Amino acid sequence: MKSIASAIRGLSLVFCAVLLIAGSLFISAAPASADTVKVIMGGKKGLVFEPAVVNVKAGDTIQFEVGQLPPHNVVFDKVPGADAALAASLSHKALEGAKKTFDITIPADAPKGEYSYFCLPHRGAGMVGKVVVQ
Ligand SMILES: [Cu+2]
């Protein structure tokens, strides 16, 4: 009887170990959580996006905040594959005034590469930015 009890104990230990290993595999296979990065439109340096280049991954969100010298907006012009529909869907063409914020989320299925954009009223002044999806 004693050997049966110890065998059951041994089996339950093995069972727990298998559960633990399977559980840890599931955790490591889960996708990385989405992040939010912030870009100031019209920062301390004037008519620029700060930072001008942000590195993100698909699914991440970029929060744009109006700083100095409004109004500002974000119009994507060059995206991977010259996908005009994707560029249009990412753009925030409405002009935003002081202290306003808006979010642009890179779709989870967006291709990797460089997405360049500009602020329509201040493009000529050099207010351009880039999102690099890694
Ligand atoms: Cu602007």
Offer a few descriptive terms.
2 domains; 5-stranded mixed β-sheet; binds copper (II) ion; alpha+beta; 4-stranded mixed β-sheet; Immunoglobulin-like; 39% strand; 134 residues; single chain
Question: How would you describe this structure to a colleague?
Answer:
GO terms for molecular function: copper ion binding; electron transfer activity. The chain is an alpha+beta fold. It has two domains: 30 residues; 98 residues, Cupredoxins -  blue copper proteins (Immunoglobulin-like, Sandwich), CATH 2.60.40.420. The chain has two helices and nine strands. The strands form two sheets. The chain has a five-stranded mixed β-sheet. A hairpin with a 2-residue loop joins strand 1 and strand 2. The longest helix has 28 residues. It is globular and about 80 Å long. It starts with a helix and ends with a strand. Bound molecules: copper (II) ion. The site of copper (II) ion has 7 residues, from loops.
Overall pLDDT confidence: 86
Low-confidence stretches: 15-21
CATH fold name of the largest domain: Immunoglobulin-like
Spatial order of the strands forming the largest sheet: 3-9-8-5-6
Shape label: globular
Largest sheet: 5 strands, mixed
CATH homologous superfamily (4th level) name of the largest domain: Cupredoxins -  blue copper proteins
What compounds sit in this structure?
copper (II) ion
Q: Which band does the percent of strand residues land in?
A: 35-45%
Which CATH architecture of the largest domain would you pick?
A: Sandwich
Which structural class do the helices and strands define?
alpha+beta
| Global Rg | 24 Å
Total of DSSP H or I helical runs spanning 4+ residues = 2
H/E element order: HEEEEEHEEEE
- Assign a percent range to the helix content: 25-40%
What is the number of strand segments?
9
CATH class group of the largest domain: Mainly Beta
In total, the number of domains comes to: 2
Please give the alpha-carbon distance between the first and last residues.
61 Å
GO cellular component, one term: membrane
Binding site for Cu cation: 72, 119, 122, 127
Family: Belongs to the plastocyanin family.
Protein name: Plastocyanin
